[in-house]
Amino acid sequence: MNNSKFDPNNELVSIIIPTYNRADLIGDTLDSIVDQTYSNWECIIIDDHSNDDSFSVISKYVELDSRFSYYSRPIERPKGANSCRNYGYKLSQGIYINWFDSDDLMCPTFLEKQLNSLSLGADVSVCKLEYFDAESGCWGKINNIYSENLIQDYLIGKVQFYVSPPMWTKKFLANQIELFDETIRNLDDWDFNLRMIYQKPKITYLDEVLIKYRVHSRSLSQQIKKLDIDEVKSEFRARHKHSQIIKNNNLIDLSIVQVYIKDRYKYLFREAMVRRDEHNFYYLKGLLFSQLYLFDFLGVFKTLFGFLVFRIFNKGYKLL
Fold this sequence. Notes:
With about 325 residues, this protein is α/β, with parallel strands linked by helices. About 45% of the residues lie in helices and about 20% in strands. Strands 1, 2, 3, 4, 5, 6, 7, 8 and 9 form a 9-stranded mixed β-sheet that branches. Helix 1 links the parallel strand 1 and strand 2 (about 40-45).
């Protein structure tokens, strides 16, 4: 059927896709799975109670190809992509697991090349992805997946695996206490990948773009830019969670992470002030606490002074 080294009767890959109101996008995603050169996969789609035409779109694939299956998130499980991912994992039959987003696209050899990479005895294989603006048609950046100081660089955003590029062995995942944290909305993949990295998996890297990461107005990553307060709070909840993990386990220098968190608060605080966002005091409080934690008393003074100047005179953006 193809040049894959794997016996299609044994090496089943479970692709798990959470989705919510992606009727206009998920068809292209599922088409990219159908077009894979490696054919022994199952695709488990967990719908988070969409209220658009997602069911109609997905049902056509389920009817035409038995490798697709469709489920609604059980009502007793919390809402969110992470809950759907964990539920899909419980239903999976494959010995390899690939969590995939409902707006991403696989290049045709994605599964085959990941499986060949995993044949080297790794716990996870990670490839690269490239940003694609679905509205403008422009291609963007390619993520960095490798570092000799992986934990530190992942924590501060120099390395990014995202959700879709890694393929995991179920043997490794089955030994984890927790998979996706169902209390986190934003940075869910960041949180998950980091907790897996802390367990020191054997990683193989594919220095090749095998995923197209579609960016559009409803992308979760765009909600932070819009200062969606729920997504912002989820981000900082995840970051503070890992600060505590690092502190308890002496994984790296904690101050590096605290400085990064401070800078994130500072950036978002400035954006909130300029946009007259109603939650600007949330960012101010977070920034001040971060500066105090780092004993940055000069920074505290500058923040408060800049805040007062901007509030009174509507000037002094640089002071913030």
